[in-house]
Amino acid sequence: MESAFQQAPTTADLQQRELDAMCVNESVLKHPWWYNLKYSAWGILFGIVFVKAEIVSWFRIQEMFRFESFHMYGVIGTAVMVGLISVLIIKRTKAKTVYGEEIHIPSKTFNKGQIYGALIFGLGWAITGACPGPLFAQIGAGYGVILVTFLSAVAGTWVYGRFREQLPH
Amino acid sequence: MLELIKQPWPWYVAGALIGLTVPFLLLVGNKTFGISSSLRHLCAACIPGDVKFFKYDWRKEAWNLFFVGGIALGAFIAANYLSNPDPVQLAAPTAEYLASKGITDTAALQPSEIFSWDQLFTLRGLIFFVIGGFMVGFGTRYAGGCTSGHAIMGLSSLQWPSLVATVMFMIGGFVMTWFILPSLLTL
Q1: In 3D, which of B112, B155, B142 has the Cα closest to residue B19?
Q2: CB B133: neighbour CB atoms within 10 A?
Q3: Residues 6 or more apart from A117 whose CB is under 8 A from it?
Q4: pLDDT at A5 over 50
Q5: Is B8 in the A-facing interface, judged by CB distances under 8 Å?
């Protein structure tokens, strides 16, 4: 029983997925697909929050960048504080996942993409009024034309992947 | 109670719930929070081409796609069953500024003057949908994360590269809003 909860071996596939991404964790546990529905459930809550707090609104992003409203700073600031305290508690108590696995937060290594790429995203964020999460929420909320923005974002991701080796990192 | 839910939610409620995503994902599945990766997984699943960056077992990251699917569904529920009929309570100076640029429709979350189908094949549409979206997708992947992966997850776990990225997100947003957008809005 114990061996099932050991840290997963680092495979080539994991390394590949870990490239420039934070949200990768290898688990040795094999679950049926419907275990993923719990992420959908949290996503639903998340989508409701996005719309109800108007985070997905282009107007709110304008207010934020024009320093004319505290709303978005409050949202992001509170989220970071809650996240920070949660991570501290998890680390301090050495909490395990509900399946008994050790919790592991991969550390991020610096590369120049966090300057150039982040700047490009920032410029795009102010135009579209949406980061990737709100794109999904805007489409769900019925703004069909955002499908075009979304497909462009997928295209942008693909083009980055295609020319990754030629870009400064 | 339902009346209360239908009001726009205050920032501290939204912020707390978003922040709780960090421990939820860690405790439930040993996952770190990040949304822009879903775009990469979609590429890997649908259009990997011959690109090494997309050649991996995307099924192992399927949770991320379930999560963003939930976001769209949640937004649908909120917009259709939990919304209030009032226009967006925009800050007065922002409203005044946008009105000077011809944007006055605050009835919905997005200004209909920009984000509607009939704008799609205009120069404005090209910039606001096609180019803007491309920059979001390209930039977040180049940066290795977006507002969720860097600004929330990264800062929560005290990763300084995420602080660099977050600062650059904001600089990009300020430059666009203050120096470039004023001319784009009047195109």
Answers
A1: B155
A2: 27
A3: A160, B138, B139, B140, B141, B142, B143, B144, B165
A4: no
A5: yes
**CB of A17 within 8 A of CB of B61?**
yes
Task: Please calculate the CA angle B118-B123-B124 and round it to the nearest 5 degrees.
Answer: 65
Among candidates A68, A62, A121, which has minimal Cα distance to B115?
A62
3-state secondary structure (DSSP) of residue A147:
helix
pTM of the model: 0.91
Helix ranges (H only) for A19-145 are 37-52, 58-65, 71-93, 113-128, 132-140
Q: Which residues of chain B have pLDDT under 50?
A: none
Which tens digits make up the pLDDT trace of A40-50?
999 999 999 99
Please answer yes or no on whether B83 and A107 come within 8 Å at the CB atom: no
Reported ipTM: 0.95
Structure tokens at A15: 């390394």
In sequence order, the 6+-apart residues with CB closer than 8 A to the CB of B48 are B54, B55
Q: pLDDT tens, A47-74?
A: 999 999 999 999 999 999 999 999 999 9
Q: Chain B residue closest to A36 (CA)?
A: B63
CA-to-CA separations, B71 to A56, A139, A163, B77, in angstroms, rounded: 11, 10, 30, 10
* Residue pLDDT, tens place only, B31-84: 999 999 999 999 999 999 999 999 998 998 999 999 999 999 999 999 999 988
A106 min Cα distance to partner chain B (Å) = 8
Q: How near does any CA of chain B get to the CA of A82, in Å?
A: 5
The terminus-to-terminus CA distance of chain A in angstroms comes to 42
